Amino acid sequence: MSIFLRLFMSIFAIGTFLFMFRKLRKSKVQLFEAFLWIIFSFGLVLLGVFPEIAIYFAQLLGIQSPINAVFLAIIFILIILNFLLTLKVSGLEMKVHSLVQELAIREHDRSNE
Amino acid sequence: MNKLLIIIPAYNEEANIEKTVRHVQEVLPQYDYLVINDGSADRTPEICRENGFNFLNLPVNLGLTGAFQTGMKYAYKHHYEYAIQYDGDGQHNPEYIEPMLQEAERSETDIMIGSRFLQAGKNRSLRMIGNSIINLCILLTTGCRIKDSTSGMRLYSARMIKEMALQPNCRPEPDTVAFLVLCGAKVSEYPVHMNEREAGESYLNLTAGIKYMFYMCTSILLLNWFRKKG
Question: What count of Cα atoms within 13 Å lies in the side-chain half-sphere of residue B211?
Answer without folding.
Answer: 6
